[in-house]
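re: that chain from earlier
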Amino acid sequence: MIRLSRDNERERLFQIWHDSVRATHGFIAEEDFELYAGLVRDEMLPSGSFWVAVDENGWPLAFLQLEGTKVEALFVDPACHRRGIGRALMEHARGLSPVLELDANEESGAVRFYRALGFREVGRSPTDGLGRPYPLVHMRLD
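^ sequence. v structure.
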């Protein structure tokens, strides 16, 4: 089931983000990981709205943040990788917006995942949004 997140789930969403990034973004320096963790915990999660994929007991397994046409975040608990949960959240987003855009870290497996969903590359950046040396692939599905 996919539903909007609840305020009391922020800690669980942070844990999903933390575990997912640790499992898939081994290229990020530890000091940068700590910077991102603080931003996610203190800024993104308290101020954002998220679509959450939950199990039969309502326990969050993954979340997606969609701002207009932009997928700002998609993170899946690593224990649930390769079960179609990320795909289901992206299909849900597609139902909300006929066009989707996102930025994916070039060094993670995300680019391959998004290409498999039909996204195409529309540009690149040598750094991430904070100017850190983590190249991004800008992608679009229309």
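The longest helix spans residues 30-47.
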